[in-house]
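Practice problem 4.
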C-alpha cells in the first residue's frame, strides 16, 4: 500500500483524531456500550502508538496536551523575538548610519537582506518546526523594506508605489519558502495597497492619496479572494484562510465607510443615495458570504460575514434611532435584534444539520 502523504496540519489533525478515538472508546467501555477484545485492543493500541511516533518524528506534531502548550509558547516567543530583532536593526541603522560612508552603506543594504534570506532558506530546510527560519525571514523582510527605503534616500529616487509591489514579491517569496503566515499577511497587504494605488493614479489622484477613495480596494480584494482557487495550499497551513479573510476585510471595510460617508465615493450621486446604495450592498454581500461559507464549509468566511452583517445592521440602527430614541429603548431594541439574529442563525443551523443527516 502506498504511504499517505500529509502536510503538518493534516498530520496534527490525524493525531487529534487518534486521541479523540481513544477517549471515545474509554467512554463507550465505561457505559457498557462496546467492549473490544483484548487482542484487538492491543493491536489497535500498537498501531496508534507507532503512527503517533512516526507522525511526531516526520512532521514535528504535538502528541500531548503538554507539547501543545509548549508549542504555543514557542510560537509566541518566535514572534516576539522576530519583532524585537527587526526593531533592533531599525534603531541600529538610524543610530550609526551617519558615521558610515556611502559605499559601505550601499554594501550593507544589499548584503543584509540577501544573507538573511539565504539563512532563512537554509534553516527552513534543516528544521521541521521552522521557528528559527521564520525569525530570520521576518528580519530579512524588515531589512529589505528598510533598505529599499534608505537606498531611495541615498540616490534621491522619487517615491513610487512600485516599492509596495517589490515588498509584496519578497514577502510572498519568504512566506512560501518558510511557511510563514505573518509574512503572507504582509505580502497581501502590500500587493493590495499597490493595486489600490495604481487604480487611484489611473483616476487622476496622487498615489499616496489612494485611501481617500475606498473603492480603490474593491478590485484587489476580488483578486486576493480568488487566488487560493488557482494555487494548491495543501502544504501551507492557514494560507487559504488568510487570503479569504483579508480579501473580505478589504471589501467590507470600504463598504462600511462608504455607507456612512458617501462623499468619499467615485459616484456622482448625492451622499444620501450613495450611503443607501452601499448599505444595501453591505447587507447583500455579508449575507452572501454567510451562505457561501456554509455551502463551501469555509467557517472563516461565515464568521467574517456574520461580523460585518451585524456591523452593518447596528450602524444602520444607530443612524435611524440614536438621535431621537431614549437610550434605554435604543439598547433594548439592539438586544431584541440580537435575539432575532440568534433565532435566524439557529434555524439555519438546524436546516444545515438536517441536510447533513439526510445526505
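Answer key:
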Amino acid at each position: 500500500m502506498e504511504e499517505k502523504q500529509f502536510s503538518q496540519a493534516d498530520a496534527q489533525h490525524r493525531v487529534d483524531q487518534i486521541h479523540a478515538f481513544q477517549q471515545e472508546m474509554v467512554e463507550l467501555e465505561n457505559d457498557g456500550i462496546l467492549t473490544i477484545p483484548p487482542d484487538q485492543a492491543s493491536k489497535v493500541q500498537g498501531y496508534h502508538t507507532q503512527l503517533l511516533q512516526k507522525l511526531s518524528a516526520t512532521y514535528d506534531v504535538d502528541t500531548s496536551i503538554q507539547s501543545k502548550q509548549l508549542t504555543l509558547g514557542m510560537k509566541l516567543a518566535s514572534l516576539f523575538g522576530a519583532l524585537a530583532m527587526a526593531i533592533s536593526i531599525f534603531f541600529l541603522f538610524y543610530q550609526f548610519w551617519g558615521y558610515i560612508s556611502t559605499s559601505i552603506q550601499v554594501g550593507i543594504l544589499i548584503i543584509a537582506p540577501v544573507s538573511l534570506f539565504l539563512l532563512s532558506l537554509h534553516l527552513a530546510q534543516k528544521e521541521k518546526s521552522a521557528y528559527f527560519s521564520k525569525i530570520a525571514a521576518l528580519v530579512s523582510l524588515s531589512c529589505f523594506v528598510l533598505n529599499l527605503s534608505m537606498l531611495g534616500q541615498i540616490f534621491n529616487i522619487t517615491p513610487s508605489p512600485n516599492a509596495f509591489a517589490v515588498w509584496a514579491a519578497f514577502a510572498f517569496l519568504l512566506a512560501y519558502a518558510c511557511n510563514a503566515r505573518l509574512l503572507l499577511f504582509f505580502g497581501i497587504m502590500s500587493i493590495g495597497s499597490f493595486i489600490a494605488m495604481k487604480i487611484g493614479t489611473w483616476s487622476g489622484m496622487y498615489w499616496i492619496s489612494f485611501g481617500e477613495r475606498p473603492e480603490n480596494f474593491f478590485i484587489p480584494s476580488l483578486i486576493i479572494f480568488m487566488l487560493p482557487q488557482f494555487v494548491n495550499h495543501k502544504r501551507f497551513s492557514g494560507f487559504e484562510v488568510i487570503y479569504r479573510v483579508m480579501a473580505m476585510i478589504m471589501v467590507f471595510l470600504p463598504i462600511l465607510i462608504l455607507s456612512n460617508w458617501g462623499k468619499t465615493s467615485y459616484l456622482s450621486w448625492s451622499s444620501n443615495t450613495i450611503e443607501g446604495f452601499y448599505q444595501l450592498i453591505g447587507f447583500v454581500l455579508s449575507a452572501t458570504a454567510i451562505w457561501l461559507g456554509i455551502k463551501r464549509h469555509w467557517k472563516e468566511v461565515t464568521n467574517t460575514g456574520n461580523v460585518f452583517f451585524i456591523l452593518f445592521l447596528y450602524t444602520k440602527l444607530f443612524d435611524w434611532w440614536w438621535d431621537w430614541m431614549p437610550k434605554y429603548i435604543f439598547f433594548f431594541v439592539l438586544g431584541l435584534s440580537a435575539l432575532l439574529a440568534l433565532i435566524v442563525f439557529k434555524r439555519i443551523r438546524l436546516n444545515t444539520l438536517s441536510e447533513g443527516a439526510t445526505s
